[in-house]
Amino acid sequence: MKLLMLGSGTSTGVPRIGDDWGDCDPNEPRNRRTRVSILVENDSGQRVLIDTSTDLRHQLLANGIDKIDTVLWTHDHADHCHGIDDLRVMRYGRSNALPGFASASTVSRLRRRFDYVFAGQNGYPTLIELKEIDTIRMAAGFGIDSVEMPHGPAVSTGYRLDADGRSLVYATDFSQITPDMVDCFMGPDLLICDCLRRDPHPTHAHLAMAIDLGRRCKAGRVVLTHLDKSMDYASLAAEVPANVTVGYDGLEIVL
Question: Which segments constitute the Metallo-beta-lactamase domain (predicted)?
Fold first, then answer.
């Protein structure tokens, strides 16, 4: 199984508009962060995309990705879903719509906002066949489990993917660790984890919380993502434990 981190930044990216790098060194390429999204590929070459970030077109071009097999969404916040139109090219040459999955509440909101994607319009075909994540246990050769996570006043879906004897967890946009999260995420080879900044935040995990989730879940390796402009790559890499990696756009990890 292989992880490709398409984007690793917060909702405004790094730098923010106005060339605002915050504490991040602009001369370090790994500090240039697009909005969060990942691609996971199994040994058979089947690919799962998690979230359609605002920067999805750029991310797919930068990494030479021209095919995916399934899409999962964590929630409907703009930075996680507003690149959905860029999946149109993935529909070309297919006899059916791409399968897509999300929680019941996210499915409802996505259908209202992007009805043309899921129902087709004016002779254009349906791009994605969207279903609730509770209706499946497997997709594109991956075993899939999910759990709802507190995201301030909202919720976000965390995912566990199993394939080829390996396990990967994607937990972004959460503000509290719950017993259900620990149960779902227990013992993964790799945990990709929300880590907005060092100081606590009302809707996101901070550094101590991200490290704590990795410890409580007994993750073999933790990769930090959803990093804001206070999280300089080199400074952060120098302070995290040995099994923790600072994520960056284009990071590849083979399990």
Answer: 34-226
Q: pTM of this prediction? A: 0.97
Bridge-based pairing state of the strands 166-171 and 190-194: parallel
What span, in angstroms and rounded, lies between the C-alpha atoms of 48 and 152? 27
With beta carbons less than 8 A apart as the criterion, state whether 255 and 43 touch: no
List the Cα angle 124/127/131 in 5-degree steps: 135
Query: Average pLDDT in the 2-14 region?
Result: 98
163 Cβ contact list (under 8 Å, min separation 6): 1, 42, 43, 141, 142, 143
pLDDT tens-digit map of 104-137: 999 999 999 999 999 877 777 899 999 999 999 9
208-215 long-range contacts, Cβ below 8 Å, gap at least 24? 209/177, 210/244, 211/240, 211/241, 211/244, 212/177, 213/171, 213/177, 213/181, 213/182, 213/185, 214/243, 214/244
Query: Would you say 3 and 220 are in contact if contact means Cβ atoms under 8 Å apart?
Result: no
The pairing of beta strand 142-151 with beta strand 138-139:
antiparallel
Look up residue 125 and give its DSSP letter.
Answer: P
Percent of the chain with pLDDT strictly greater than 70: 100
15 cis-preceded (ω within 30 degrees of 0): yes
Residue 125, pLDDT score? 85
Tokens encoding 60: 């797919």
**How much of the chain, in percent, has pLDDT values that exceed 90?**
94
